[in-house]
Write a structure and sequence with these properties.
alpha/beta; 2 domains; three-stranded antiparallel β-sheet; 6 helices; disordered N terminus
Length: about 200
């Protein structure tokens, strides 16, 4: 059941409910509390208004058009095609972005060059990263990423054909959240997408 938020309040996704609930802080608190909740709303790209200490939870409406972006860093055209097909079958093709080498990944995440327009190239909620990339390797992308304060909590799933334990270990030590070996068949990419949705995309 959903409820509309009252006027003159701030709303933002509840951090413990993966965006399925909204906390609304109503007017009537001390200045420090108003500032704290206003800052929290702005950090989550919400409209901030007067806020206070009284909280009410509102179930968010499940919206099939809820936007998130999956960024896939992959130079193999076949793998990109298989992932696009899996996303299309799931009706999620609009959420997909792809870059073809490590340098393009850095440019995309930094918002530089061809990727300066965030409305066209939104920041991802999940980075799917191959290791064997031209220009800049996946390991280098991962090492750079974890040095950037704004990306330290960005989930990164390594998606590689390598089954070498040392590659897996190095990726995890550099800050990868998961390591998925590419399936032998492109028809299995749908199962990979299911894994990503259940673990990282909701």
């Amino acid at each position: 059941m959903s409820s509309a938020a009252p006027q003159n309040s701030i709303g933002f996704p509840h951090p413990e409910s993966a965006g399925k609930c909204v906390i609304v802080a109503e007017p009537g608190a001390a200045g420090s509390d108003r500032r704290r909740f206003a800052n929290a709303a702005r950090a989550r790209n919400c409209i901030a208004g007067p806020a206070g200490l009284k909280f009410r939870k509102f179930d968010a409406v499940e919206n099939s058009t809820k936007t998130w972006t999956l960024l896939y860093v992959e130079d193999d055209e076949n793998d990109v095609l298989f992932m696009e097909m899996a996303l299309r079958r799931a009706g999620l093709q609009q959420q997909f972005r792809c870059v073809r080498n490590g340098q393009e990944a850095l440019d995309y995440l930094s918002g530089t060059g061809d990727y300066a327009q965030r409305d066209q190239h939104p920041l991802p909620v999940l980075l799917l990263l191959d290791l064997n990339l031209p220009a800049v390797s996946g390991f280098e992308v991962l090492a750079w990423l974890r040095k950037q304060p704004q990306f330290q909590s960005l989930p990164v799933v390594i998606f590689s054909s390598s089954s070498r334990p040392e590659d897996r270990q190095r990726a995890l030590e550099l800050g990868a959240n998961d390591y998925v070996q590419k399936p032998a068949s492109g028809m299995k990419f749908g199962e990979v997408l299911d894994h990503l949705r259940s673990g990282w995309l909701g």
